[in-house]
Amino acid sequence: MTTIRQDDFIASIADALQYISYYHPPDFIRALAEAWRREEAAAARDAIAQILVNSRLCAEGHRPICQDTGIVVAFLKIGMEVRWDAELDLAGMINEGVRRAYTDPHNPLRASVVTDPDGARRNTGDNTPAVIHTELVSGDRVEVILAAKGGGSENKARFAVLNPGDDLVDWVLQQVPTMGAGWCPPGLLGIGIGGTPEKAMLLAKRSLMEPVDIQQLAARGPGNRAEALRLELYDKVNALGIGAQGLGGLTTVLDVKVLDYPTHAASKPVALIPNCAATRHIHFQLDGSGPAVLQPPSLADWPEIDWQPGAGSRRVDLDRLQREDVLDWRAGETLLLTGRLLTGRDAAHKRIVELLERGEPLPEGLDFRDRFIYYVGPVDPVDGEAVGPAGPTTATRMDKFTEPMLAKAGLLGMIGKAERGPEAIESIRRHRAVYLIATGGAAYLVSKAIRSARLLAFEDLGMEAVYEFEVVDMPVTVAVDASGESIHRTGPAEWRGRIGRIPVESRS
């Protein structure tokens, strides 16, 4: 009979969450490195290079891969012969591990979980509670899978109950383009088929915990319908040409995972959940001998990439920028930003726009006229950092605020990740403004360009407060130019056409 001690279990949860905050799974790194080597689209290849460089920096510096350090998801298989030497219940022990991991002073992780989700949405402050799935199995071990899933990818989940005769591949190929780039491709797609609605969603999430092995599967060939679906969807999703960060390119997904379960004769529930470029999960087992021992991966798993901003990048001095200067920037162009910019995301935008609509003044010192705003909620700094990992958040969520921010606040430009919707693009065009993107999944790399951070407004919002950053050579790409041209429209369209003329074996 195995006895699992409370302290060992809590320490294992905390250590594992710290571990996955800065170590990508090696199988993911190898697959991403291979995608980088074969990528032909310049913008997408540069984005993948930034993600890989960021990943290595995080592995070396033990700092988060992404500023969105995720909501914790735990899958547990508990042997029925296991006894517990514990005062807390299972959820209490897991949440204590989460609390310790996310408040670790050496590597604090961003608290993103809010309570009262349809009301006050108060941040719990320590990223608790976790989402827990438990299964009792035979044996005397506890098997644990932990994942930290970011909001950008979780928000793109899809579900439907298809008719038994409907084509699942057609459904997936209809859904993926509607997901945009907010889930930070290249990543993985998890597909759950069958059971009941909640079972299909759970299957899709659980499938993402498996190793990246699509190339091995292609080499040996499928052994069942689920494996055949994986191969078919891998080729057909990549043929959409969406590419890294939605910029257009050969690789949108590194793997497609499929799990299925028997279902009702009248039903075919299907779920799709993406995993982003900040893929974070770990598997370990407890046998009563102590806490889990987690071996660091070898730095040899990361490719040596001497990434530098493109030689043709335009240098921009934000402190001297005039409104007419942005008019000749073109979608797809790379910029290096130096100077001062403001930050703000969902909660701050809501407050700012409410003040503008009531005709009330903004907080003292907060002036958006002819300025740029960066959609970011950074990690807290440590050891002399100006700011912790500070990658962009999904800009689409700010679309409804774009018109008042441009028309009433006088904003000149925005920086985020992923595409903008039609109304936001029209507002950008009408006001002759611009929208730029930083690379999602390269948060620590981006933070290296931030030299100082000064709180300006809404301190109570925590990571969503408004700051003024001073940046030096912050790399960004023009995603929507002043004429309304969007790289997220032109890039994938171009590569969809190109991929159609490239043999499958040449692009996989």
Features:
single chain, 508 residues, alpha/beta, fumarase, 5-stranded mixed beta barrel, 15 helices, 19 strands, 24% strand, globular
Task: Give a structural overview.
This protein has 508 residues and is of the alpha/beta class. It has a domain of 179 residues: Alpha-Beta Barrel (fumarase), CATH 3.20.130.10. The chain contains 15 helices and 19 strands. The chain has a 5-stranded mixed beta barrel. Helix 1 packs across helix 4, helix 6 runs parallel beside helix 9 and helix 11 packs parallel to helix 12. The longest helix is centred in the first third of the chain and has 20 residues. The radius of gyration is 23 Å and the shape is globular. The model has no long low-confidence stretch (mean pLDDT 95).
Indicate the topology.
Blueprint: E1 2-5, H1 6-22, H2 26-38, H3 42-61, E2 71-79, E3 82-85, H4 90-102, E4 114-115, E5 122-123, E6 131-137, E7 142-149, H5 151-154, E8 158-162, H6 168-178, E9 187-194, H7 197-207, H8 214-220, H9 225-238, E10 253-261, E11 268-275, E12 281-286, E13 314-317, E14 334-343, H10 346-358, E15 372-374, H11 399-407, E16 413-416, H12 422-430, E17 434-437, H13 443-447, E18 450-457, E19 466-480, H14 487-499, H15 504-507
Parallel strand pairs: 1-3, 2-6, 9-10, 13-14, 14-15, 15-16, 16-17
Antiparallel strand pairs: 2-7, 4-5, 7-12, 8-11, 9-11, 14-19, 17-19, 18-19
Helix pairs in contact: 1-4, 2-3, 6-9, 11-12
